[in-house]
Structure formats: C-alpha cells, structure tokens
Write a structure and sequence with these properties.
Blueprint: E1 5-11, E2 15-22, E3 27-34, E4 38-40, E5 44-47, H1 49-65, E6 74-81, E7 86-89, E8 99-100, H2 108-115, E9 120-121, E10 124-125, H3 126-136, H4 147-157, H5 159-164, E11 167-170, H6 171-180, E12 185-186, E13 196-197, E14 205-206, H7 208-214, E15 224-225, E16 230-233, H8 236-242, E17 249-251, E18 254-255, H9 256-264, E19 272-276, E20 280-286, E21 291-292, E22 297-301, E23 308-314, H10 318-329, H11 344-354, E24 363-365, E25 383-385, H12 393-419, E26 425-429, H13 436-446, E27 449-453, H14 459-471, H15 480-483, E28 486-490, H16 497-521
Parallel strand pairs: 1-6, 6-17, 6-18, 12-15, 19-26, 26-27
Antiparallel strand pairs: 1-2, 2-3, 4-5, 5-8, 7-11, 9-10, 13-14, 16-17, 19-20, 20-23, 21-22, 22-23, 24-25, 27-28
Helix pairs in contact: 9-14, 10-12, 11-12, 12-13, 12-16
Length: 522
Amino acid sequence: MDEEYILAFDHGTSGIKTAIVDTQGQVLALESKHTPIHFLPDGGAEQDPQDWWEAMLYTAKKLVQRQIVSPEKITAICISSTFSSTVAVDRQGNHLMNCLTWMDSRGAPYLKKTIQGFPSIQGIDLLKGLTWVSKTAGAPALSGKDDIAHVLLFKYQFPEVYEKTYLFLPSKDYLNLRLTGEFAASYDSMHLFWVTNIKDINNMFYDDKLIKWLDIDKDKLPPLKYSTDILGTISASMADEIGLNHDVKVVMGSPDHQCACLGSGAVQDFEGHIYIGTSSWIECMVPFKKTDIMHSIASFPTSIPGKYQCINEQDLAGGCLAFLMDNILFYENEHLKIEPPEKAYDIINKIAAQVPPGSNKLIFTPWLNGERTPVDDTKLRGGFFNISKTTNRDHLIRAVMEGVAYNTRWSLKYVERFIKGKMPLINIIGGGAKSDVWCQIFADVLNRDIRQVKDPINANARGAAFIALMAMEHVKFDEIPSLVKYEKTFYPDPENRKIYDDLFEKFVQIYKVNKKIFHQLN
C-alpha cells in the first residue's frame, strides 16, 4: 500500500479536534479549537453551526500547513460528531438557525403530546410504544433530547424555520454537506429521529407509519447511506482553502458513540468500553436487536454494516468536573477573582489521589442537566450529600469523580443484564481516561478491570479514521483490535470494596428518596 493518511475530525460539544491519522490508526498530529454553547431558559442548549465550520477550517488548515505529512498523501476525510444534534438547512445548505444540541430538552412537551396515550408504558401510548420497539428497538426519549424532539420543537415553536427547512441533518452530516455539497445522512446518525426501521440490520429504511404518528414531513428527511460509504469528493473550493488535493474522498462517518467504539478497540461482541468526556457512556457491540425500555437501553445501528451495539449514556461526566472548576473552585465575579493555575486538571488529579476512597462519605450526584440513563428524567439535579463541618475542597473534588463512577455503575448493572453476562475487562477512553486516579476509581467502584487505551482523548478521531480506512479498503473490521494500543490496566482494590458498595447503595437511595422533590423544584 502506498503511504496514505486520513484527515479525521472529532467534533465534540466543547470544540473541534482535527487529526492526521496513518493507516495503522496512529494519530500523528492534532489541532483543536473551542466552540461555545449557549444555554437558554426551559432547557435550551444551542450551538452556532458556523462556529463549528470555522473551527474545522482553522484546525484543518493549521494542521496541513505544519507539513507533518505531505498534503498530497491525505486521501480521505471522515468526521465523528455529537449524536442527536440537529441542524435545519435550506436547499442551498445554509443553516436556518442555531443547532439544537443533544442537551436541548425544549421539545419534550411537543413529543409527549404526540406519543402519549392510554394505556401507556413509560409515558408512551402502549400500542405505539410496542410498535416503536418492534421496528426501532427503542422509542423516543421523553426527556426531549433526541433529534425527533428537536424536529417537533422546530415545527411548533419555530414554524417559520420548519417551513423553510429543506432537510433536517445530524451535525456530522451538516459538516459533510459543507465539505462536499452533498445532502445525505448515515443510518446510525439518523437513529434518534426514531423513524428508521432497523428490524433487518441489512435492510434499514424510513418507516411511513412512524413518520405519520409523529406528523412530520418525510421529504424533510435526508437520503440514507452506510457510515462506510464514500459520500463524494471534497469540493474544489474547500480543497483549495484547506490545502488538499481535489480528489480527496469524504467518507460518511458516524456519531461519536459509534466512532468511539471503534477507537476504543472493544469491537467484538460483548466487549465493553467506557467513554468519559463532557458526557459519558458504557456500550458494547451485540449480535442481536433487543430493548430494555425501562432503562433506556436498545440495540442501535453501528458504523459497521450488519452490526448492532447497545449503549447506556449518562448526561454529564467530565462536564461535572468542568462545572466544579468553572462554577465553584475558580468562579469569578466583580468581588472575587480567582485565576486557575496552569495545568489545573493535573493538580485536581493530585488532590483527588490524596483523598481517602469514599471522600469521607461525601456523595455527589452528577445530574446537573437531568439524566438520560439508567433513568430518563430531565428534572433531576446534582448535589453534594452528607456535607459536614470537616468537609473541604479536596473532598468535593474526589466526590465528583466518584459520583460519576457511581452513576456508571448504575448503568453497568443494566447493560450487563441486557447482554446476560459480565464484562470482566472494560476499555476506557475520552479525556477523563487520561486521569490515572479516575481510572482507579472506576475500577474500584465498578469492581471491574479497567484498561486505559493509549492516547484515549483521540479515540473518536481514531475511530473516524478506521471508518475511512475501511471505506478505502485499507483495513478490515476484524483487524481493528490489533491496531489499538493500551497504556495500563487498573485492578479493583479489595480494601475499597465495602466503602464503595455501601456508598453506591446510598447513591441510588438518594435518587429514589429525592425524585419527588426534584420534580417539585424543577
């Protein structure tokens, strides 16, 4: 094989990371740029797609100009992007308003009105719910954070935008449109619109009955392709601006969950991985279509044709640590200015490592933006429980890390029930996986061996590159595990078993006891 390279984009909530990846899946160079998010009343969370695009161009041009590799040897582009972030575009491909991100829950009332009925299951009309599960392996989340709730929000709260919309596109597919001028979406990126029949993973299609129930326009849904399909070549103007050849292929790509799965190396059936970024999830490939409607677990299409995966996602993880840093430890106002130190997260890790396991029985609940799984409830909120006179900043720091791990353990319980087996070894990726102390906390809280993927923060970009390499027939699916490298494995400390078992039990009790109060407050 001639020497070739992939330009891989990892579009996350907080920004764009752009990488040059070789045919062995190794990230050779990286550039990144922050993109803002705008929180609005009543659960709004928007981003300007133009901010994404400018960040993509900035990082891509900067990376190509560094001449890490000859630009002529970059043969393909592939994008990993946030799941369930919805962009309305006109016929010219212009976005008509800000993107509704995966955190935006304002469409919940419209969704509930559309799908509720009596008798019901989990708030969904029983007949409709059973039909949805039969066809899609799941159903729209009543939290209103799925793409379909975003479409309904456009329709009923922004009707002028809805009328002008040519197509609703997931974020990845909007960015692909900007690169190529081609309108399309992948089966996996469209799944949370909940209108795709996936009964036969090898023959997926838009389902007219589901579309009719939701009362949306089918002609506003994009053509569907596989993630490993080549969408087209980069437009001449974009190639010239970035500094690439005009024959560079743009591969369809996948949402972040699916790309992360590949980048984690855990791609065989029932091999699990945990991702710790702004949000978090635990997932694995499965050889079947199945649903646990009570805990929001279902089989989804993956980036690999003919494969399902199951996932249980919590709303915020690393985002909780960012909240602690930005809103508490180093929050500034006109009366108090506190400059965060250089390498603040390194210091945070050192502090957390010095605090005894259990943080003096301080429990943090990470539901700052509600929760998705294992309970779907936008009304939940975070908090520190059992604060005493001796509680200090150090306890807060470790408690946040432990609280995220407790929530993951809660999810793991139902994922392992879903697959009818234990995951003895779980790979960990994402920015949070760079922290040895957090990896050890996960090992102790989950009572599982945790394997730290090398270069974990670039797992999504690596996964996107694998998709491109498969599309270009340079790599086969079953070769991926041998291409992923690992740093170290963290083993549960049996001395911490009792404290973490006890605190996890109390963590779940906090949810059960306070759920009603959260609903009254929020």
